[in-house]
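Late entry, written up from scratch paper. The run itself happened at the end of the previous shift, but nothing got recorded in the book at the time, so transcribing now.
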Amino acid sequence: MKVQGKTVWITGASSGIGEALAVELFGRGATLILSARNEARLNELKARLDSISPGRCHVVVCDVTSQPAIDTAIEKVRQIANRIDILINNAGVSQRSYAIETSLEVVRELLEVNFFSAVAVTKGLLPWMISQGGGHLVVISSMAGKFGFRMRSAYAASKHALHGFFETLRAEVHDQGIKVTMICPGRINTDISKHSLTGDGKLYGKMDAGQANGVSVDKCAKIIVKAIIRDRKEVFIGGPELFLLVVKRICPPAYYWIVNRASPT
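Output as recorded:
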């Protein structure tokens, strides 16, 4: 499937992977609907894209942790576009705190942002997608959705939950023309660690060394778009950390030895 001429809705589009995806998809001829809470950042991105080709980028501000906000956003999206070909559930927040020191409120917030928001937006949009004859759901998960890692307990739980829900959904709506692609980034050079939550809900505010040395966000976006075009079911993006997936499968004791000693930052 080519993305040229397709309409794509991206949540969490104001920065990081979401912003890079917007730029990459726009460059390939897609029409974009950009959502996030930060209206100023969204409008800055829209202005950049409009200067290249006006009329193919729209902003719909939405707090994806609020059901009323999601309902309102979907109505606005339906007013803007005749159809949504691709939904990219990208909104998310990470964690930098040990489980024992993380309040239950923070655990719930991480699940709300990373898991329930993607489910809520998808469920709100899915009947429309099915009625239009199909569509493509893209979910930005994480390698933490495949194994646990220190200081990521609730984050990993939220990403594991995404796989359980959307892999089940893929089987349920396959015959109705709905495709599902799970994207599992490892360390990508974004500000995700700076915006991560600590145990009491405050911002971590630091750039992790592993994050700073990660795959460039532009390269990550190119890989994701190629995965969408090729209808890949699951894609892993990263550097040396990808080796852990292989080790866990073929030699679990070695995997546990490594993760028990690896730096969480």
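The first helix runs from residue 16 to 27.
(Scratch paper discarded after transcription.)
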